[in-house]
Amino acid sequence: MRVTVDTARCVGAGQCVLNAGAVFDQDHDGVVELIDPEAADAHPSAVELAATLCPSGAIAVHRD
C-alpha cells in the first residue's frame, strides 16, 4: 500500500488524524502531513477510512 497526500487540496478537517494518527498529522495550519507512510501497511483499514472520510479527497491510497 502506498499513500499520498495533496496538501493543496486539504481543508484541515482532521479526519485523517482522528482515524489514522499513526500515519497522518496536521501542520500548524491544519494541513495534512504524511508522517509515517510505512505505518499504512500496519493500519490499512484506518488509512482507507481516513481517505474515504477526507472531505476534500486529499488522501489517495494506491495498491501498487
**Name of the CATH architecture:** 2-Layer Sandwich
Characterize the main sheet.
Answer: 2 strands, antiparallel
Number of strands: 4
CATH class, named Alpha Beta
Roughly how many Å apart are the termini?
7 Å
User: How does the helix and strand content classify structurally?
Assistant: alpha+beta
Biggest sheet: strand arrangement: 1-4
Q: Helicity range of the residues? A: 10-25%
Cα shape: globular
Tally of helical runs: 2
Mean model confidence by pLDDT: 96
Whole-angstrom Rg: 10 Å
What share of the residues does DSSP label as strand, in percent? 15-25%
Number of domains: 1
Succession of helices and strands: EHEEHE
Could you name the ranges where pLDDT drops below 50 across 5 or more consecutive residues? none
Q: Say what the CATH topology is.
A: Alpha-Beta Plaits
What does this entry look like structurally?
The protein has 64 residues and is α+β, with helices and mostly antiparallel strands. The longest helix is centred in the last third of the chain and has 10 residues. It is 23% helix and 22% strand. It has one domain: Alpha-Beta Plaits. Strand 2 and strand 3 form a beta hairpin.
